[in-house]
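Amino Acid Chain and Its Fold in Token Form
===========================================
What this section holds: a protein sequence and its matching fold, both as plain text.
Structure line: whole-number tokens from a learned vocabulary of local backbone shapes, matched to residues.
Purpose: to set a sequence beside its fold so the mapping can be learned.
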Amino acid sequence: MKQSIVHIALVVKDYDEAIEFYTKTLNFELIEDTYQPEQDKRWVVVAPPGSSGTTILLAKASKPEQEKTIGNQTGGRVFLFLNTDDFWRDYNDMMTKGVEFVREPKRAEYGMVAVFKDLYGNLWDLLQLNEDHPLSQRK
């Protein structure tokens, strides 16, 4: 049996400002932006450059209950984990683009890590996993 997680839904305030942040600030690729008239919404999918795994579905909040979760989908815990092949390149690029890091870079047993906020305040880990880490060797 083979299964995979295709999308993770991230609740956003506005499609266009979210697309701008993810594509311009984090250098993600816009995979799809399709209007769905039957639901009067857009299907917006982004992914890190060179990624062939899980993508992020930018899902605009459509009711008050959803709006309350924008920026706090996991109650203040780190929500998403962005692994890179060059930690310092991406860290420095994000710093020059104004990304707010709430935990400075450090070496951990699994690799390099720093915590940053996205445009709504969700917490992310920027990671460069060690070459011997189980996820680094997974193809």
Observations:
- The chain has a mean pLDDT of 94.
- The first helix runs from residue 15 to 25.
- The beta strands are 7-12, 29-36, 41-47, 55-60, 78-83, 101-108, 111-117, 123-129.
- The longest strand covers residues 29-36.
